[in-house]
């Protein structure tokens, strides 16, 4: 409840659209269970909110790990264990076989989840990995925020990488000998009730170690460097094996690779996209000035050499942005990527300039007659994603069906409907909504009136409208010369 209340507060009071922003809240939990899947972790980092959530975890506390096991695996002892976790409950089963059974069941499932995640971190391409995942019931729950592990010796180990935290939840509770099971199972319950005493000692000592450059973590003790020795001692204090440290390194390498991927696509954007965007901007201007028509219809007709070249640039840009979207879908870019202002602006400029050309090309080849409406059947993800980035940045309450970049698709559909002599009442509401949208987009300078006032496609649509609707658009375009 504290976590969700904090998310609500951050959304409500740190909204970027508000001018006054109060001091942000901090949520601190002690032995908290996991509360969401990887989407929650991704979203919190995208908004740069992970820093507002601090989770303390004792080394063997079972509660932060419980939801890594499905209820079906632990339901026999679920109720009695939770009674033991209640400090007011007088009877304890910490020393009973039930505690050992419960701990073993949770950790077996935690092992499955973390092993699967580790294979992905290390880039395994074995098809068996996904085959097993289809048959084994793997928990979707994942950590998020900043975790502080208490090793029991007064030391606090701070980890911000959620992939690394998942690995630590498994490897810090490993047994060196099966004979330790009864004692560790007992500790896994008792430690959940010991945070106050543990943190009084730990916070007083101020012995804090930050695990940040995970890809450089030492695999063994090395006395040649004091910082390395300190980190190595902290890892030893958590009981981390060489395999565990390799998993943490893999988490760090993945994060580092994501940053390299962003640098790569930024360079590709500068090398390919910038010049193509500049060409299309000049193409748009030349159509309006030299041909006296909008670039939508000029591109749709495809009569001249510069129309062909514009199509080449359109395809170049589509390739660049399709690669960006595919990398996003595969989580190969930093979680913060979608929220960065420069990429939101790049995506918006691209969508507004290029999507009309995609729509023109779609209708030029009459694909609407075979495939169906562009917005329903054919709109590429590169436009859907970039539209969503802008809407989220502006905190739009819901996705807008028709935008300033896709309104040509609506014009084409409405024109086809009305021109076929079908009942106008069935599309009246859509026509009136388009009129309102056109006014909004021109008022906010998201579209210039010349964008649609010079295009034959729009003129044809305008001329078959009923008088009342035609008058509304006439009033909107009253200041456009020649309309």
UniProtKB/TrEMBL annotation:
Main location class: cytoplasm
Domain Fungal lipase-type: 1-67
MF terms in GO: hydrolase activity
Subcellular location: Cytoplasm; Nucleus
GO BP: defense response; lipid metabolic process
A single Gene Ontology CC term: cytoplasm
SUPFAM superfamilies reported in the protein's UniProt record: alpha/beta-Hydrolases
NAD among keywords: no
Keywords: Coiled coil, Cytoplasm, Hydrolase, Nucleus, Plant defense
Alphabetical list of InterPro entries matching this protein: AB_hydrolase_fold, EDS1-like, EDS1_EP, Fungal_lipase-type
Residue stretches making up the EDS1 EP domain: 280-463
Pfam families registered for this protein in UniProt: EDS1_EP, Lipase_3
Protein name: EDS1 EP domain-containing protein
Species of the source: Vigna angularis var. angularis
């Amino acid at each position: 409840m504290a976590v969700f209340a904090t998310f609500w507060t951050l959304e409500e009071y740190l909204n970027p659209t508000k001018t006054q922003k109060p001091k942000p809240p901090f949520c601190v939990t002690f032995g908290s269970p996991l509360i969401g899947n990887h989407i929650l972790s991704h979203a919190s980092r995208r908004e740069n909110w992970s820093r507002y959530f601090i989770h303390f975890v004792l080394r063997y506390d079972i509660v932060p790990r419980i939801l890594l096991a499905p209820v079906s695996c632990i339901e026999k002892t679920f109720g009695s264990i939770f009674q033991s976790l209640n400090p007011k409950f007088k009877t304890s089963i910490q020393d009973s076989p039930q505690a050992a059974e419960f701990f073993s069941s949770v950790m077996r499932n935690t092992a499955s989840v973390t092993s699967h995640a580790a294979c992905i971190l290390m880039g395994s391409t074995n098809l068996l990995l996904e085959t097993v995942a289809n048959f084994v019931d793997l928990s979707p729950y994942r950590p998020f925020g900043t975790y502080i592990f208490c090793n029991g010796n007064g030391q606090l180990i701070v980890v911000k990488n959620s992939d690394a935290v998942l690995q630590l939840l498994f490897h810090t509770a490993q047994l060196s000998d099966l004979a330790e099971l009864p004692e560790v199972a007992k500790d896994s319950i008792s430690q959940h009730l010991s945070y106050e005493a543990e943190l009084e000692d730990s916070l007083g000592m101020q012995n804090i170690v930050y695990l940040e450059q995970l890809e450089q973590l030492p695999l063994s003790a090395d006395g040649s460097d004091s910082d390395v020795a300190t980190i190595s001692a902290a890892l030893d204090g958590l009981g981390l094996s060489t395999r565990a440290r390799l998993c943490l390194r893999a988490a760090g390498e993945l994060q580092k690779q994501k940053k390299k991927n962003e640098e790569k696509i930024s360079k590709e954007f500068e090398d390919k996209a910038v010049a193509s965007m500049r060409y299309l901007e000049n193409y748009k201007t030349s159509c309006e000035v030299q041909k006296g028509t909008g670039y939508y219809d000029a591109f749709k007709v495809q009569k001249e050499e510069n129309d062909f070249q514009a199509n080449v640039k359109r395809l170049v840009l589509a390739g660049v942005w399709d690669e960006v979207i595919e990398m996003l879908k595969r989580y190969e870019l930093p979680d913060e990527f979608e929220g960065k202002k420069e990429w939101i602006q790049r995506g918006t400029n691209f969508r507004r300039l290029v999507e009309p050309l995609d729509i023109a090309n779609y209708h030029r080849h009459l694909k609407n007659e075979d495939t169906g409406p562009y917005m329903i059947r054919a709109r590429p993800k590169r436009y859907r994603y970039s539209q969503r980035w802008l809407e989220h940045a502006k905190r739009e309450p819901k996705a807008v069906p028709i935008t300033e970049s896709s309104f040509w698709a609506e014009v084409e559909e409405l024109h086809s409907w009305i021109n076929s002599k079908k009942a106008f009442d069935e599309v009246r509401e859509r026509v009136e909504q388009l009129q309102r949208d056109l006014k909004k987009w021109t008022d906010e300078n998201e579209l210039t009136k010349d964008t649609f006032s010079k295009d034959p496609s729009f003129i044809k649509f305008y001329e078959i409208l009923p008088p009342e609707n035609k008058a509304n658009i006439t009033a909107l375009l009253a200041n456009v010369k020649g309309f």
